[in-house]
Amino acid sequence: xxxxxxxxxxxxxxxxxxxxxxxxxxxxxxxxxxxxxxxxxxxxxxxxxxxxxxxxxxxxxxxxxxxxxxxxxxxxxxxxxxxxxxxxxxxxxxxxxxxxxxxxxxxxxxxxxxxxxxxxxxxxxxxxxxxxxxxxxxxxxxxxxxxxxxxxxxxxxxxxxxxxxxxxxxxxxxxxxxxxxxxxxxxxxxxxxxxxxxxxxxxxxxxxxxxxxxxxxxxxxxxxxxxxxxxxxx
Amino acid sequence: xxxxxxxxxxxxxxxxxxxxxxxxxxxxxxxxxxxxxxxxxxxxxxxxxxxxxxxxxxxxxxxxxxxxxxxxxxxxxxxxxxxxxxxxxxxxxxxxxxxxxxxxxxxxxxxxxxxxxxxxxxxxxxxxxxxxxxxxxxxxxxxxxxxxxxxxxxxxxxxxxxxxxxxxxxxxxxxxxxxxxxxxxxxxxxxxxxxxxxxxxxxxxxxxxxxxxxxxxxxxxxxxxxxxxxxxxxxxxxxxxxxxxxxxxxxxxxxxxxxxxxxxxxxxxxxxxxxxxxxxxxxxxxxxxxxxxxxxxxxxxxxxxxxxxxxxxxxxxxxxxxxxxxxxxxxxxxxxxxxxxxxxxxxxxxxxxxxxxxxxxxxxxxxxxxxxxxxxxxxxxxxxxxxxxxxxxxxxxxxxxxxxxxxxxxxxxxxxxxxxxxxxxxxxxxxxxxxxxxxxxxxxxxxxxxxxxxxxxxxxxxxxxxxxxxxxxxxxxxxxxxxxxxxxxxxxxxxxxxxxxxxxxxxxxxxxxxxxxxxxxxxxxxxxxxxxxxxxxxxxxxxxxxxxxxxxxxxxxxxxxxxxxxxxxxxxxxxxxxxxxxxxxxxxxxxxxxxxx
Lengths: 234, 597
What we know:
The complex is a heterodimer of chains A (234) and B (597). Chain A is of the alpha+beta class.
């Protein structure tokens, strides 16, 4: 039998199965903690850091922290929200994001978080890094300018023998997302769509389709990101 | 090529977990890990090519393109800079006709920069085909390059060897130990096997209790109680591993180099005792690539220990089996972080893991693992030999025993000192013969920079903790340019890049400090750096990101006047320098720049 535990987020009593990751437990209790790298049921990456909360007074990423009985969690505070906004701003200055020309506009988690945190002009200087577009595989455009290194594709997209199709290359400032050209050549349409949908931004795009849903009818066009979670328990 | 690569892969039983070793062997054999090699390795290991590239591209000493027949890796750390690195680099460039980052057209020589190679007491230093060259100057560089042109073997370029084991036939290195002060523990008298013999007559629980009672804390810098770590791991019910962290990459640290040279048997003995205490049968020494010159010697020590029955099967007839293998790194500071070290030992990119689970629960190969520093294992041997009370009688109440310091920079006697915890910085400076001191960088770039007003503080875990790096900075140095900027460039290069905040903020902070150093800074830049440093400290996963802003924050706190002097009190100032931007083109066309400001 799995044990049920009680804990609080911003003073609200919550319950979850012991050991469940805080970010999922919060969502199940109707509380949205912002995320970019996390995907339910996937090994946590803990890389975007935007879900940083204060857990019993310590800064922890909610996507890597299992809930324990009596945990006191702070999430929606001015301090943490400013950190989250800073992270969004940082991702905008680090990569090259031109929303109006992006297929993912309206379906993009990064853009949606920019709106949620009312980002105007990033407080950080732009990096203007030159990044490549990798278009040599038959089904995928890999637009490295937009990659935020969430590792979702790295963790999720494997071929039939379990081999990675995506992986990191380099480190630190030379870090980039890399695609295995040999394995990508045999990707099915389904796997390609799975990769594109997993990508929180517009870095992975399926070739030969575009703008199937017009602007105005997309995921975040009508309601801000996180609304679906917050509605559950209203 | 194909046959050679197949035989290398075969040597490691086609185990993707040994990818580091495979890549190291390939790099050594071909001077690079080419795309063709990547394809062969991937298909033999049945993994994707991008996963091989992932590991190759993470480490400094793996290259895609062939390095020169002589590959020069010149250390560009702060202390190297103090003692003439620029002149040495300039002479290399003059003599070879190429710039750093390039290779001569005939493929003979390539020049590269690298981070601290653990020789801060004998800078400027470089690795040439893995052989260490110390105390370089223009004259020596001229001779080295001439020798290269003659095709001399690197080992034949010098005949003077360092002291102690450095002169051993299996080492033959010019590195000096520079042991300036010995204490009772790690550099004191040592009889191989004595501690182990005693340990094997004890209950494993009693060993852990003894280590706990001694208050021994991790000597790599983090200071976690060693006995507690062993206890956590011992409680797990699974096969376990003992890892030794010999990846001392913190610039200014070189004390593990000396232990590996003079106390290798003691370190292995400590690992064996730990193995017996926690119930492990296998150990791994993770040794940084920079110390590969010690490879043959260290591996021979293992052979000797096996011959003496201090390692291997049925150790000392007590029915305990334990063996150790050596795993080399390939140049990545972050692998000094224990979970990144584990990832690297498993053949992956050295990316720190999320916690929980902790390595004591799920570590190497996902089995319970303890990772301790070289000095920690050496200390444990003496604790078992002489008892916790003997050990605790040294040092302070909270920091028991002795500590090895690697002291470098502006002082008369740089080297390794075994001191009791509790010594003040002032006492330390007198000990090393340092006068006219502007600042002391305690614990390396990730530590803190303290001014003379704080020299009465104690070197102790409760006051000024350190993994051993102590850099003395003289009054003649430009603290912000020569030290802080160099440290920030180091962190920018060494971040694994996985956390958004560490990857980006180190780049942003480096740019900000550069702006200030170059005279384009404004007051707001100082406030910004302070505020932004807070964000990175609060949000990154591992110690690298949590401490990488320290060079800036501790100097803003302790040397604010240096910043104030350099910045302008205006609302806005561009960090773009028009004069600098057009200087080159103006020179080419012979025009005087006409810039309106």
